[in-house]
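FORM 7B: Structural annotation worksheet

SECTION A. Query
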Amino acid sequence: MSMATRTKRGIIHLIMTAYMIIIVFPLLWMLISGFKSNSEIFGSPWSFPSSLNPKNYIYAWQTYIQRATLNSLFFTILGTVLTVLIAGMAAYAVIRFRLKSSYIIFLFILSGMMLAPQCSLIPIYKMLGITHLYNTRIGLLLPYVAYRIPFSFFMMWSFMVTLPIEVEEAATIDGCSVFGTFFRVVMPMCKPAIATTAVMCARFIWNDFAFALVFTEGKALQTVPLSIFSMRSTSQTDWGVLLGGLTLAALPMVIMYIVLQKYFVSGANSGAVKG
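SECTION B. Predicted structure
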């Protein structure tokens, strides 16, 4: 290896190390500050806590996070599954079914990416009120799925378009139906796209605040972001409890990314067709 190559690699490693520190440091600070009291947070924000007492985490979990976690898990898991399934089926149909209107359908679905969710809060609110779906699980789930389909469709389409059709033809010869080919052949080859789509969709739903605030009321359907918001007070806020709650709220997405990160490398279907 030449000196120039070693120098370039060293510079790249330094840049990536600095970038990693910039990303990880706020998370570590939030985790450590969750063990502090208000006086420690404001008096010595950069020091370690005097004791690793998890009372802030326990209080945040028992009082706020616990009752909202089930709601967030319900919307996140079901919304992600429905989004990936619908987007995958739509992408497969546009690619493999040679319809005259395929290009129009493709553009129609992608046009949903042009509309920001915040712009449709009032129309959706009125529609949910007319259909009596306001403050219901399905009334909050439908906007989540609808707004994640365009981007998820594009992700699935961009991966499926590179898949070799010979594998699907072999499955058809073996007696697989269209749905059988899709679920048994196409979807397993799309693991990288599915993982990326699932993480992006789950992150959007789990962290959503606007939809949950506008389309629900009361504590029955309260999600984690709303419970975190309720920790704040106009007169006094326990910042240790708030930071502990934020740390607990971030854990599911961090764990999900760690579990699915190995599928982020594209080309999982490499070598599926030989000869």
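SECTION C. Observations
The longest helix spans residues 55-96. The chain has one domain: 55-264.

SECTION D. Sign-off
Analyst initials: ____
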